[in-house]
Amino acid sequence: MALNASEIAKIGKVAITAYGKNKPVDQINMDRPLLDALIPKAKDITGGVDGFTINIFKSNGGNGQIWSGNNRVTYNSRSPNDYSKWDWLNHHDGFVLNEDELKRAGITVNDDVGKSTATKGEAVALTNMIVSNFMALEEGVKDDIHKYLWQDSSTTGSPIPGIDNIVSLTPSSGTIGGIDAANTYWQNIATTSVATTLAGMLGALEAAKRNILKRRGKFTHIFVGGAFYDALRNAVIGANVTQVTYGSGSKLNIDMATDTLKFDGIPLTYVPIFDDTSVLATTGGVAWTNRCYMLNLQNSIELRRDSDDFMRMRYPGRPIDQYTYHFAMTSKFGLGCAKRNSNAVLAI
Amino acid sequence: MKIKQPYLLALVTYSSAYKAPVAVFPHEVDILKVRFGEDSVLITDTPPPIKEAEFDTEEEYARLLEVHPGTEAAPNPVREVFRNLAEFEAAFEETPKRGRKPKDDVDGAAD
User: Which of A135, A160, A319, B69 has a CA 20 to 30 Å removed from the CA of B81?
Assistant: First the structure.
Protein backbone atom coordinates (compact mmCIF):
# COMPACT_ATOMS: atom_id res chain seq x y z
CA MET A 1 0.00 0.00 0.00
CA ALA A 2 1.37 3.40 -0.93
CA LEU A 3 1.65 6.23 1.51
CA ASN A 4 0.16 9.61 0.82
CA ALA A 5 2.08 12.85 1.11
CA SER A 6 0.65 13.89 4.46
CA GLU A 7 1.44 10.51 6.01
CA ILE A 8 5.04 10.73 4.82
CA ALA A 9 5.28 14.26 6.16
CA LYS A 10 4.02 13.13 9.57
CA ILE A 11 6.52 10.27 9.75
CA GLY A 12 9.34 12.60 8.76
CA LYS A 13 8.58 14.99 11.57
CA VAL A 14 8.43 12.25 14.17
CA ALA A 15 11.78 10.86 13.02
CA ILE A 16 13.40 14.29 13.28
CA THR A 17 11.99 14.67 16.79
CA ALA A 18 13.58 11.38 17.83
CA TYR A 19 17.00 12.34 16.50
CA GLY A 20 16.78 15.85 17.87
CA LYS A 21 16.04 14.46 21.36
CA ASN A 22 13.97 17.48 22.25
CA LYS A 23 10.32 17.65 23.06
CA PRO A 24 8.53 19.41 20.19
CA VAL A 25 8.28 23.10 21.01
CA ASP A 26 4.69 24.31 20.98
CA GLN A 27 4.10 27.03 18.39
CA ILE A 28 0.37 27.43 18.35
CA ASN A 29 -1.47 26.72 21.57
CA MET A 30 -2.88 29.61 23.55
CA ASP A 31 -3.77 30.11 27.21
CA ARG A 32 -7.29 29.11 28.18
CA PRO A 33 -7.97 31.20 31.29
CA LEU A 34 -11.69 30.44 31.57
CA LEU A 35 -11.20 26.68 31.41
CA ASP A 36 -8.31 26.95 33.88
CA ALA A 37 -10.49 28.92 36.28
CA LEU A 38 -13.51 26.62 36.00
CA ILE A 39 -11.91 23.18 36.17
CA PRO A 40 -10.73 23.27 39.82
CA LYS A 41 -14.27 24.09 40.97
CA ALA A 42 -16.12 21.91 38.47
CA LYS A 43 -19.04 19.92 39.85
CA ASP A 44 -20.04 16.44 38.82
CA ILE A 45 -22.80 15.63 36.41
CA THR A 46 -25.05 13.08 38.00
CA GLY A 47 -27.53 10.95 36.12
CA GLY A 48 -30.89 12.40 35.17
CA VAL A 49 -33.11 12.66 32.16
CA ASP A 50 -32.97 16.44 31.89
CA GLY A 51 -29.41 17.43 32.55
CA PHE A 52 -29.01 19.21 35.87
CA THR A 53 -30.75 21.94 37.82
CA ILE A 54 -29.66 24.77 40.09
CA ASN A 55 -32.10 26.10 42.69
CA ILE A 56 -32.66 29.82 42.78
CA PHE A 57 -34.47 32.25 45.04
CA LYS A 58 -36.46 34.62 42.88
CA SER A 59 -38.88 36.63 45.00
CA ASN A 60 -39.74 37.61 48.57
CA GLY A 61 -43.39 38.02 47.53
CA GLY A 62 -43.67 40.74 50.15
CA ASN A 63 -47.11 41.56 51.56
CA GLY A 64 -46.17 44.01 54.29
CA GLN A 65 -48.90 46.25 55.69
CA ILE A 66 -49.37 48.95 58.24
CA TRP A 67 -52.28 48.39 60.59
CA SER A 68 -53.85 49.97 63.62
CA GLY A 69 -56.74 49.25 65.93
CA ASN A 70 -59.22 46.77 64.48
CA ASN A 71 -57.90 46.92 60.88
CA ARG A 72 -57.94 43.60 59.06
CA VAL A 73 -54.65 42.36 57.67
CA THR A 74 -54.13 40.02 54.70
CA TYR A 75 -51.93 37.05 53.96
CA ASN A 76 -50.65 35.83 50.62
CA SER A 77 -49.28 32.63 49.15
CA ARG A 78 -45.64 32.68 48.18
CA SER A 79 -43.51 30.86 45.70
CA PRO A 80 -40.06 32.23 46.33
CA ASN A 81 -38.10 29.39 44.78
CA ASP A 82 -37.54 28.22 41.26
CA TYR A 83 -34.86 26.22 39.54
CA SER A 84 -32.81 26.77 36.46
CA LYS A 85 -32.37 23.83 34.15
CA TRP A 86 -29.23 23.09 32.17
CA ASP A 87 -27.94 20.38 29.93
CA TRP A 88 -24.59 18.87 29.04
CA LEU A 89 -23.13 17.66 25.78
CA ASN A 90 -20.83 14.92 24.55
CA HIS A 91 -17.56 15.93 22.97
CA HIS A 92 -15.24 13.72 20.96
CA ASP A 93 -11.90 14.19 19.26
CA GLY A 94 -9.71 11.42 17.95
CA PHE A 95 -6.94 10.33 15.61
CA VAL A 96 -5.99 7.19 13.76
CA LEU A 97 -2.69 5.48 12.98
CA ASN A 98 -2.36 2.90 10.27
CA GLU A 99 0.17 0.09 9.98
CA ASP A 100 1.96 1.67 7.02
CA GLU A 101 2.56 4.90 8.91
CA LEU A 102 3.92 2.89 11.82
CA LYS A 103 6.12 0.73 9.58
CA ARG A 104 7.66 3.79 7.91
CA ALA A 105 8.39 5.16 11.36
CA GLY A 106 10.29 1.97 12.15
CA ILE A 107 7.54 0.21 14.04
CA THR A 108 6.39 -3.22 12.99
CA VAL A 109 2.99 -4.32 14.15
CA ASN A 110 2.01 -7.94 14.50
CA ASP A 111 -0.94 -9.72 16.01
CA ASP A 112 1.05 -11.58 18.68
CA VAL A 113 -0.45 -11.76 22.11
CA GLY A 114 1.66 -11.64 25.25
CA LYS A 115 5.11 -10.23 25.98
CA SER A 116 6.28 -7.45 23.66
CA THR A 117 9.02 -8.27 21.20
CA ALA A 118 9.54 -4.64 20.18
CA THR A 119 13.10 -3.49 19.62
CA LYS A 120 14.53 -0.48 21.51
CA GLY A 121 14.29 1.60 18.33
CA GLU A 122 10.68 0.66 17.84
CA ALA A 123 9.85 1.59 21.41
CA VAL A 124 11.48 5.05 21.01
CA ALA A 125 9.74 5.69 17.70
CA LEU A 126 6.39 4.54 19.00
CA THR A 127 6.74 6.63 22.15
CA ASN A 128 7.59 9.73 20.13
CA MET A 129 4.77 9.17 17.73
CA ILE A 130 2.21 8.45 20.42
CA VAL A 131 3.38 11.23 22.75
CA SER A 132 3.19 13.83 19.99
CA ASN A 133 -0.22 12.69 18.86
CA PHE A 134 -1.54 12.51 22.41
CA MET A 135 -0.26 16.00 23.14
CA ALA A 136 -1.97 17.25 19.99
CA LEU A 137 -5.16 15.47 20.98
CA GLU A 138 -5.20 16.85 24.52
CA GLU A 139 -4.34 20.41 23.51
CA GLY A 140 -6.91 20.31 20.70
CA VAL A 141 -9.62 19.07 23.05
CA LYS A 142 -8.84 21.80 25.59
CA ASP A 143 -8.97 24.42 22.82
CA ASP A 144 -12.28 23.14 21.60
CA ILE A 145 -13.85 22.96 25.06
CA HIS A 146 -12.59 26.46 25.84
CA LYS A 147 -14.20 27.72 22.63
CA TYR A 148 -17.51 25.99 23.44
CA LEU A 149 -17.48 27.55 26.92
CA TRP A 150 -17.36 31.04 25.42
CA GLN A 151 -19.19 30.92 22.16
CA ASP A 152 -22.81 31.43 21.20
CA SER A 153 -24.76 28.30 20.22
CA SER A 154 -25.84 29.72 16.88
CA THR A 155 -22.18 29.62 15.89
CA THR A 156 -21.07 26.35 17.44
CA GLY A 157 -24.36 24.55 16.88
CA SER A 158 -23.98 23.44 20.48
CA PRO A 159 -27.16 22.51 22.35
CA ILE A 160 -25.80 24.10 25.53
CA PRO A 161 -25.25 27.80 26.15
CA GLY A 162 -21.82 29.38 26.22
CA ILE A 163 -20.82 32.47 28.21
CA ASP A 164 -21.94 34.53 25.18
CA ASN A 165 -25.49 33.26 25.85
CA ILE A 166 -25.45 33.25 29.66
CA VAL A 167 -23.84 36.69 29.92
CA SER A 168 -25.61 38.06 26.90
CA LEU A 169 -25.25 41.32 25.02
CA THR A 170 -29.08 41.28 24.87
CA PRO A 171 -29.82 40.01 28.38
CA SER A 172 -33.61 40.40 28.38
CA SER A 173 -34.25 38.10 25.39
CA GLY A 174 -34.65 34.37 25.24
CA THR A 175 -34.95 31.53 27.71
CA ILE A 176 -31.75 30.67 29.49
CA GLY A 177 -31.60 27.76 31.88
CA GLY A 178 -35.35 27.24 31.46
CA ILE A 179 -36.16 30.71 32.84
CA ASP A 180 -37.59 33.49 30.70
CA ALA A 181 -35.01 36.24 30.42
CA ALA A 182 -37.82 38.81 30.50
CA ASN A 183 -37.71 38.33 34.31
CA THR A 184 -35.60 41.22 35.51
CA TYR A 185 -33.92 39.08 38.19
CA TRP A 186 -32.68 36.75 35.42
CA GLN A 187 -30.73 39.30 33.40
CA ASN A 188 -27.02 39.90 33.33
CA ILE A 189 -25.59 43.42 33.06
CA ALA A 190 -24.63 44.49 29.53
CA THR A 191 -23.21 47.74 28.19
CA THR A 192 -22.06 48.22 24.62
CA SER A 193 -20.43 51.13 22.78
CA VAL A 194 -18.43 52.13 25.84
CA ALA A 195 -16.40 55.29 25.12
CA THR A 196 -12.65 54.62 25.13
CA THR A 197 -11.88 57.57 27.40
CA LEU A 198 -10.81 57.00 30.98
CA ALA A 199 -14.09 58.44 32.22
CA GLY A 200 -16.08 56.29 29.81
CA MET A 201 -14.32 53.03 30.61
CA LEU A 202 -14.08 53.50 34.36
CA GLY A 203 -17.67 54.73 34.40
CA ALA A 204 -18.83 51.55 32.66
CA LEU A 205 -16.78 49.31 34.98
CA GLU A 206 -18.06 51.11 38.08
CA ALA A 207 -21.66 51.01 36.88
CA ALA A 208 -21.38 47.29 36.14
CA LYS A 209 -19.87 46.66 39.57
CA ARG A 210 -22.64 48.62 41.28
CA ASN A 211 -25.34 46.77 39.32
CA ILE A 212 -23.79 43.45 40.31
CA LEU A 213 -23.60 44.50 43.99
CA LYS A 214 -27.20 45.72 43.87
CA ARG A 215 -28.51 42.15 44.17
CA ARG A 216 -25.83 40.95 46.55
CA GLY A 217 -23.76 39.68 43.69
CA LYS A 218 -20.04 39.84 43.17
CA PHE A 219 -17.60 39.20 40.39
CA THR A 220 -14.47 37.12 40.82
CA HIS A 221 -12.83 37.27 37.41
CA ILE A 222 -12.43 39.82 34.61
CA PHE A 223 -11.66 38.52 31.13
CA VAL A 224 -10.85 40.91 28.30
CA GLY A 225 -9.91 41.01 24.66
CA GLY A 226 -6.82 42.81 23.39
CA ALA A 227 -8.64 45.90 22.11
CA PHE A 228 -10.46 46.44 25.43
CA TYR A 229 -7.23 45.93 27.39
CA ASP A 230 -5.30 48.37 25.19
CA ALA A 231 -8.07 50.96 25.28
CA LEU A 232 -8.18 50.90 29.08
CA ARG A 233 -4.40 50.93 29.43
CA ASN A 234 -4.07 53.84 26.99
CA ALA A 235 -6.83 55.74 28.76
CA VAL A 236 -5.06 55.24 32.09
CA ILE A 237 -1.68 56.21 30.64
CA GLY A 238 -3.22 59.28 29.00
CA ALA A 239 -4.54 60.46 32.33
CA ASN A 240 -1.32 59.95 34.27
CA VAL A 241 1.93 61.84 33.82
CA THR A 242 5.07 60.51 35.47
CA GLN A 243 8.09 62.76 35.87
CA VAL A 244 11.51 61.21 36.35
CA THR A 245 14.45 63.30 37.56
CA TYR A 246 17.96 61.91 37.45
CA GLY A 247 21.41 63.35 37.82
CA SER A 248 24.46 62.92 35.62
CA GLY A 249 26.23 59.63 36.17
CA SER A 250 23.11 57.88 37.40
CA LYS A 251 21.41 55.11 35.47
CA LEU A 252 17.78 54.67 34.69
CA ASN A 253 16.09 51.29 34.63
CA ILE A 254 12.68 51.75 33.09
CA ASP A 255 10.42 48.81 32.27
CA MET A 256 7.83 50.11 29.83
CA ALA A 257 5.51 47.12 30.01
CA THR A 258 2.20 47.20 31.84
CA ASP A 259 2.50 44.75 34.70
CA THR A 260 -1.14 44.34 35.64
CA LEU A 261 -4.34 46.24 35.11
CA LYS A 262 -6.77 45.68 37.96
CA PHE A 263 -10.27 46.75 38.76
CA ASP A 264 -11.54 46.40 42.32
CA GLY A 265 -8.51 44.26 43.12
CA ILE A 266 -9.22 41.81 40.32
CA PRO A 267 -6.66 41.58 37.51
CA LEU A 268 -7.87 41.95 33.95
CA THR A 269 -7.03 38.62 32.35
CA TYR A 270 -6.29 38.70 28.66
CA VAL A 271 -8.03 35.93 26.70
CA PRO A 272 -5.93 35.23 23.59
CA ILE A 273 -8.73 33.61 21.57
CA PHE A 274 -10.74 36.85 21.83
CA ASP A 275 -8.25 38.25 19.33
CA ASP A 276 -8.43 35.31 16.95
CA THR A 277 -11.45 35.55 14.69
CA SER A 278 -10.69 32.12 13.24
CA VAL A 279 -11.55 30.71 16.67
CA LEU A 280 -14.19 33.14 17.93
CA ALA A 281 -15.89 34.67 14.92
CA THR A 282 -17.59 38.02 15.35
CA THR A 283 -21.31 37.71 15.79
CA GLY A 284 -23.81 40.47 16.34
CA GLY A 285 -21.34 43.13 15.30
CA VAL A 286 -19.49 43.09 18.62
CA ALA A 287 -16.00 41.74 18.09
CA TRP A 288 -14.63 39.60 20.89
CA THR A 289 -11.47 41.69 21.09
CA ASN A 290 -13.64 44.64 22.19
CA ARG A 291 -15.26 42.77 25.05
CA CYS A 292 -14.79 42.64 28.81
CA TYR A 293 -16.52 40.00 30.94
CA MET A 294 -16.92 40.47 34.69
CA LEU A 295 -17.84 36.98 35.85
CA ASN A 296 -18.69 35.35 39.12
CA LEU A 297 -17.07 31.93 38.90
CA GLN A 298 -17.43 31.30 42.62
CA ASN A 299 -21.17 30.86 43.08
CA SER A 300 -22.80 31.91 39.83
CA ILE A 301 -21.31 30.30 36.73
CA GLU A 302 -20.11 26.76 37.10
CA LEU A 303 -18.74 23.98 34.96
CA ARG A 304 -20.41 20.61 35.30
CA ARG A 305 -18.55 17.63 33.98
CA ASP A 306 -18.64 13.89 34.29
CA SER A 307 -15.68 13.13 36.53
CA ASP A 308 -15.35 9.71 34.87
CA ASP A 309 -15.68 11.07 31.36
CA PHE A 310 -13.97 14.42 31.05
CA MET A 311 -10.97 14.40 28.74
CA ARG A 312 -11.00 10.64 29.02
CA MET A 313 -8.79 8.60 26.70
CA ARG A 314 -10.69 6.04 24.70
CA TYR A 315 -9.26 3.15 22.70
CA PRO A 316 -11.94 1.92 20.32
CA GLY A 317 -11.39 -1.57 18.92
CA ARG A 318 -9.87 -2.16 15.52
CA PRO A 319 -12.34 -2.25 12.66
CA ILE A 320 -12.62 -5.61 10.89
CA ASP A 321 -11.87 -4.14 7.49
CA GLN A 322 -8.97 -1.76 8.27
CA TYR A 323 -5.58 -2.30 9.90
CA THR A 324 -5.77 0.86 11.92
CA TYR A 325 -5.52 1.97 15.53
CA HIS A 326 -7.94 4.57 16.80
CA PHE A 327 -7.41 6.86 19.77
CA ALA A 328 -10.03 9.25 21.10
CA MET A 329 -10.69 11.64 23.94
CA THR A 330 -14.26 12.18 25.08
CA SER A 331 -15.87 14.61 27.49
CA LYS A 332 -19.29 15.25 28.96
CA PHE A 333 -19.70 18.81 30.16
CA GLY A 334 -22.01 21.79 30.38
CA LEU A 335 -22.24 25.25 31.91
CA GLY A 336 -24.77 26.25 34.53
CA CYS A 337 -25.56 29.58 36.14
CA ALA A 338 -27.14 30.23 39.51
CA LYS A 339 -27.33 34.03 39.26
CA ARG A 340 -27.17 35.78 35.91
CA ASN A 341 -27.28 39.25 37.49
CA SER A 342 -23.93 38.62 39.13
CA ASN A 343 -22.18 38.87 35.76
CA ALA A 344 -21.58 41.66 33.27
CA VAL A 345 -20.37 42.14 29.72
CA LEU A 346 -18.98 45.44 28.47
CA ALA A 347 -17.86 46.27 24.97
CA ILE A 348 -16.10 49.25 23.50
CA MET B 1 -18.67 45.32 -2.70
CA LYS B 2 -19.43 47.39 0.41
CA ILE B 3 -22.92 47.04 1.85
CA LYS B 4 -24.54 48.63 4.89
CA GLN B 5 -27.21 46.55 6.59
CA PRO B 6 -29.17 46.74 9.85
CA TYR B 7 -28.89 44.03 12.48
CA LEU B 8 -31.93 42.04 13.55
CA LEU B 9 -32.28 40.13 16.78
CA ALA B 10 -33.20 36.53 16.02
CA LEU B 11 -34.28 34.10 18.70
CA VAL B 12 -33.07 30.55 18.11
CA THR B 13 -34.79 27.69 19.93
CA TYR B 14 -32.47 24.84 20.88
CA SER B 15 -34.75 23.17 23.44
CA SER B 16 -37.70 24.06 25.65
CA ALA B 17 -35.25 25.28 28.29
CA TYR B 18 -32.95 27.11 25.96
CA LYS B 19 -33.79 29.86 23.48
CA ALA B 20 -31.02 32.31 22.81
CA PRO B 21 -30.96 35.64 21.00
CA VAL B 22 -28.38 36.36 18.34
CA ALA B 23 -27.91 39.59 16.40
CA VAL B 24 -27.64 38.87 12.69
CA PHE B 25 -27.85 40.64 9.36
CA PRO B 26 -31.11 40.01 7.43
CA HIS B 27 -29.32 37.70 4.96
CA GLU B 28 -28.23 35.45 7.85
CA VAL B 29 -31.80 34.66 8.96
CA ASP B 30 -32.42 32.14 6.17
CA ILE B 31 -29.09 30.48 6.94
CA LEU B 32 -30.12 30.09 10.59
CA LYS B 33 -33.43 28.60 9.44
CA VAL B 34 -31.68 26.06 7.24
CA ARG B 35 -29.33 25.19 10.09
CA PHE B 36 -31.71 25.03 13.03
CA GLY B 37 -35.11 24.57 11.37
CA GLU B 38 -37.69 26.96 9.94
CA ASP B 39 -39.78 27.03 13.14
CA SER B 40 -36.79 27.38 15.44
CA VAL B 41 -35.84 30.89 14.34
CA LEU B 42 -37.98 33.92 15.18
CA ILE B 43 -37.28 37.59 14.61
CA THR B 44 -37.87 39.66 17.73
CA ASP B 45 -38.67 43.34 18.20
CA THR B 46 -35.87 43.71 20.74
CA PRO B 47 -33.21 46.10 19.47
CA PRO B 48 -29.83 44.45 18.86
CA PRO B 49 -26.73 45.76 20.65
CA ILE B 50 -25.41 47.27 17.40
CA LYS B 51 -27.91 48.94 15.04
CA GLU B 52 -26.18 48.46 11.72
CA ALA B 53 -22.81 47.85 10.17
CA GLU B 54 -21.02 47.99 6.85
CA PHE B 55 -19.33 44.92 5.45
CA ASP B 56 -17.41 43.80 2.43
CA THR B 57 -19.44 41.09 0.69
CA GLU B 58 -16.42 38.84 0.10
CA GLU B 59 -15.38 39.03 3.76
CA GLU B 60 -18.94 38.58 4.94
CA TYR B 61 -19.43 35.48 2.78
CA ALA B 62 -16.20 34.03 4.18
CA ARG B 63 -17.37 34.84 7.73
CA LEU B 64 -20.71 33.15 7.14
CA LEU B 65 -19.00 30.00 5.86
CA GLU B 66 -16.84 29.95 8.98
CA VAL B 67 -19.62 30.72 11.45
CA HIS B 68 -22.07 28.24 9.92
CA PRO B 69 -20.05 25.21 8.91
CA GLY B 70 -21.63 22.10 7.50
CA THR B 71 -21.50 18.71 9.12
CA GLU B 72 -21.03 15.23 7.76
CA ALA B 73 -24.79 14.78 7.90
CA ALA B 74 -25.81 18.19 6.54
CA PRO B 75 -24.25 20.33 3.82
CA ASN B 76 -23.06 23.84 4.58
CA PRO B 77 -26.22 25.89 5.26
CA VAL B 78 -24.65 29.00 3.73
CA ARG B 79 -24.17 27.28 0.37
CA GLU B 80 -27.72 26.05 0.54
CA VAL B 81 -28.97 29.64 0.66
CA PHE B 82 -26.24 31.31 -1.42
CA ARG B 83 -24.40 28.75 -3.56
CA ASN B 84 -21.41 31.02 -4.08
CA LEU B 85 -20.13 34.56 -3.62
CA ALA B 86 -21.66 35.75 -6.90
CA GLU B 87 -25.10 34.60 -5.79
CA PHE B 88 -24.57 36.24 -2.39
CA GLU B 89 -23.60 39.55 -4.02
CA ALA B 90 -26.49 39.32 -6.48
CA ALA B 91 -28.90 39.26 -3.55
CA PHE B 92 -27.82 42.78 -2.64
CA GLU B 93 -27.95 44.05 -6.20
CA GLU B 94 -31.57 42.94 -6.46
CA THR B 95 -32.67 44.59 -3.22
CA PRO B 96 -32.99 48.19 -4.51
CA LYS B 97 -34.82 47.00 -7.65
CA ARG B 98 -37.47 45.33 -5.55
CA GLY B 99 -38.04 48.48 -3.52
CA ARG B 100 -38.02 50.87 -6.51
CA LYS B 101 -41.23 52.78 -7.09
CA PRO B 102 -43.04 52.66 -10.44
CA LYS B 103 -41.91 55.41 -12.85
CA ASP B 104 -45.18 57.38 -12.55
CA ASP B 105 -44.87 57.60 -8.78
CA VAL B 106 -41.28 58.75 -9.01
CA ASP B 107 -42.29 61.45 -11.45
CA GLY B 108 -45.17 62.46 -9.23
CA ALA B 109 -42.87 62.71 -6.22
CA ALA B 110 -40.58 64.98 -8.19
CA ASP B 111 -43.45 67.37 -8.85
Answer: A160
Q: Does B36 touch chain A (CB under 8 A)?
A: yes
In this predicted model, what pLDDT tens digit does every residue of A61-108 receive, in sequence order?
888 999 999 999 999 888 888 889 999 999 999 999 888 888 887 777
| CB spacing of B50 vs A175 below 8 angstroms | no
In this prediction the pTM is: 0.84
Integer Cα distance of A342 and A301 in angstroms: 9
- The pLDDT profile of chain B, 111 residues, written as one tens digit per residue, is 888 999 999 999 998 889 999 999 999 999 999 989 999 999 998 888 888 888 999 999 998 988 888 777 778 889 989 988 998 988 888 655 444 454 454 444 444
What is the per-residue burial (b if ≥16 Cβ within 10 Å, else e) of A11-26?
Answer: beebbebbeeeeeeee
Q: Best residue in B7, B15, B22 to probe A by mutation, most A CBs within 10 Å?
A: B22
Contact A309, A155 (CB under 8 A): no
Q: Per the CB < 8 Å rule, is B22 touching A152?
A: yes
Rounded to whole angstroms, how far apart are CA atoms B81 and B72?
18
Burial class (CB in 10 A: 0-12, 13-18, 19+), B92: middle
What amino acid is encoded at B30 in this protein?
Answer: D
Give the span between the Cα atoms of A214 and A212, in whole angstroms: 5
Burial class of residue A343, CB neighbours in 10 A (0-12, 13-18, 19+): buried
For B46, the closest of A170, A190, A286 (CB atoms) is A170
Residue B84, min C-alpha distance to chain A (Å)? 20
B110 min Cα distance to partner chain A (Å): 37
DSSP state of B111: -
Quick check: B20 contacting A, CB < 8 Å?
Answer: yes
ipTM of the complex: 0.77
Orientation angle between helical segments A5-20 and A120-150, nearest 10 degrees: 110
Return the amino acid letter for B66: E
Q: Decide if A154 and B19 are in contact by the 8 Å CB cutoff.
A: no
**Residues in contact with A228: Cβ distance below 8 Å, sequence separation at least 6, in sequence order:** A289, A290, A291, A292, A346, A347, A348
Given CB atoms, is B43 within the 8 Å cutoff of chain A? no
Please say whether the beta carbons of B91 and B2 come within 8 A: no
